[in-house]
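Please review this one.

:::
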Amino acid sequence: MKKVLVCRTDGIGDLLLTTPLIHELAAAGYETYVLAGLYAGTLLENNPDVKGIIYYNKENIKFVQMSVKDRGFDLAICAYPRFEIARMLKKSCIKEIYGTSRRWYSPLFFNRRINLSRKKSDKHEADYNLMLAPFLGGKQAAGYYYFPAKEEKDRAAQVSAKLGLKERFVIVHPGSKGSAWNLSPEKYAEIASLISVETGADVLITGAASEKEIMVKAGAGSVNDKRIKILDEKMDVRDFAALIGMSSLVVSCSTGPMHIAAALKVKTLSFFPPKEIPHISSARWGALGNKSAIIELNPDGEAPDMEKIKAEIKGLING
């Protein structure tokens, strides 16, 4: 059995978009390992397609290289092309290294160069990842692969009970850590109130520890509406994923929680920039494998009127 290393060391969503590639490699009989970031990599735990995870630490790349070389990989696929990773793979004496032909360093480090350009963004990112392994026969992604553990679900249920959330609550996730076009926190506050009033569902405002101010603004309606709640519980990413799995809908921009929701077949309403900006469009980065709706933002970054948002939310919740 050949051993393959898939390299994807960026964010949560980016790694989940690589799971179709990982799945197809495992299905084809490859013993599949993944080089992943310290934070995002935990999402691959409990995944039957993944034989092992090597955590990438840029500050100690020599140790990472040693870990890679010691495992004796037959091939590597550089799904997130970065100079330092490509060089490390070459130094690890891996026989076949797959990567895009479009980087200046590609001829130096990739001996299996794929003529792939993401510039037009006319495919989904998950499909671009699959194109880096042409020996799989041109597979296309149908969804992501994520496997929560029972204890994570139990801890998420405890948080839900503590917050007093009714079954099938809605998550509103207003932050993005600056990685995507987004609405203002005040607009998310309007959306949270709309969901509560129009559907009667509980609304949970979520975000990272660094996004507390955004969460408070987005949850302003919680002062007068007890159905709107702000998550102040510290949760690790896998427990938070399990909490997402308990919800009926996630409202956000293009961000990791949107992709987690898609992986768990939770419905999503997502805000994206206009399609005229293809490299960050929903065609490339939208949710995959779940029931979803996309609302394109205006050029000024704001959404269309609330009536359109209300119609999409009602359609998803009642559909």
Notes: The first strand starts at residue 3 and ends at 8.
